[in-house]
Amino acid sequence: METQIKQLLGTVVHPETGTDIVTSGMIEHLAATNEKKTVVLRFAKARDPFAVKIKNQVEALLKEHFPQSEILVVVKEGGQAPRPEPKEKTTTGSIAHIVAIASGKGGVGKSTVTANLAIALRNMGFRVGILDADIYGPSQPKMFGVEGYVPDAVQEDGTDLIVPAESMDIRLMSIGFFIKPTDALLWRGAMAVNALKQMIHQTKWGPLDFLLLDLPPGTGDIHLSIIGELKIDSAAIVSTPQQVAVADVVRGAEMFRNPNVNIPIAGIIENMAWFTPEELPENRYYLFGKGGARRFAEENGIGLLGEIPIVQSIMEGAEEGRPATAIDPRVEQHYREIAERIVENVMKKR
C-alpha cells in the first residue's frame, strides 16, 4: 500500500524545483493502514510559498484514491528532519529496556494497567520508571499520589535536568506535572511533541531496568513522535473483552507492525475480563463479554499476556494513589504473571 502511495505522490511536482516530492526527499514519513493514511512533508526552506498548494494536492490525491480512509497530511518546514538526540545528549542511556503500553481507545484502563505493571516489575526486583505521555488525560500522578509534585531542575555537566517524582520506588515523569487537567485537551501538535521530547531526553532517569511508556489512546502523530525518539523493545496493548474495544486493537497492532515502526508486540492484556464478588470467590461474571481479546490474539498471531478481573481494590487503589498490586495479593498475582511474560518477551529479543 505504501508503494502505491509513493507512486501516486511521485506525480506531485514542486513548481520551483521541477522535481517530484518523492524524488526530492520531501516525504519525511509515510504510514498507511486500511483506516488512515498519514504523510509528513518536509520542505527545505521555511515559509515555502508552495507548501499549502502541495499539501492540498497530496490531500486531494489521497482522498480520490482512498475515499474510505482518513487522510492526514502534515507540513514541516526548514531543512532536514530532526534526528533523535545523540546518546551523549539524552538521559535515556542508562535505561535497559523500554516497553510501550498502548490502547486502541480510551476508557479501557491502560494507565491503571501501566501503574500496576510497574509495581509488579518492582516486586520482581527491577528498577522501574514510568513516562506518562498521555496528553489527553495524564493519570499517573493520581495513580501514585503525587498530583501536587512540581519538578525541580538540577544542572549536571552544564545541562539542565528534570528531577522525576518518586513514589513506591517508581521514578515517574508525567506531562501532568506541567499542565492543568483542564488544559490537557488543548495540547496538540508541536507543543505536545516538544514537551514530550524534553521529558524523554532531559529527565534524570538514572539507571533503570524498565521504563514503561503510558501512551495516549488511539494512534496518531504523537505516538509516531515518541516512537521516533526512543528505541522501544516491545509493546503491550490493553483492551477489554467487548468487540468494539477489540476492533480498536487492530489499529494499535497495525501501527506497531507498520514497517516504518516495526516494534515487536509482546501481546494483549485483557482488562476487566470478569467480575468476582467478595462473597462468591469461585464465581465469574463476564460483564463485558468473554474472551474477545483472546480470540483476537489467536486469530492475529499475537500473544495474550493475561486477563485482569474487575477487583474493587484496583479501583480504590487508583483513587487513593496506591496501585492495588502493592497491597492486594490477588491482584499482584495477575499482574506478576503478565510482567513475567513481558520480561521473557523482551529478554528473548535482545
Compact summary:
With 350 residues, the chain is α/β, with parallel strands linked by helices.
Defining key terms:
350 residues, alpha/beta, eight-stranded mixed β-sheet, three-stranded mixed β-sheet, globular
Q: Could you report the average pLDDT, rounded to the nearest whole number?
A: 83
Main sheet? 8 strands, mixed
Computed CA radius of gyration, to the nearest angstrom: 21 Å
Number of strands: 13
Could you state the oligomeric state of the chains shown?
single chain
Helix content: 25-40%
N-end to C-end Cα span: 30 Å
Order of helices and strands: HEEHEEHEHEEEEHEHEHEHEHH
Shape: globular
With strands numbered from the N-terminus, the spatial order across the biggest sheet is 8-9-5-10-4-11-12-13
User: What percentage of amino acids are in beta strands?
Assistant: 15-25%
Unreliably modeled segments: 80-88
Number of helices: 10
Structural class: alpha/beta
Give your account of this protein's structure.
With 350 residues, the protein is of the alpha/beta class. The chain has ten helices and 13 strands. Strands 8-9-5-10-4-11-12-13 form an eight-stranded mixed sheet, with helices on both faces. A three-stranded mixed sheet has the order 1-2-3, with helices on one face. Strands 6-7 form a two-stranded antiparallel ribbon. The two termini are 30 Å apart. The relative contact order is 0.14. Residues 80-88 have low confidence and may be disordered.
List the helices and strands and how they pair.
Blueprint lengths: L1 H8 L17 E6 L3 E8 L7 H15 L4 E8 L17 E9 L6 H14 L4 E5 L7 H4 L9 E4 L2 E4 L2 E3 L2 E5 L14 H14 L5 E7 L6 H9 L4 E6 L3 H15 L7 E6 L21 H8 L4 E4 L4 H9 L8 H21 L1
Helix pairs in contact: 3-10, 5-6
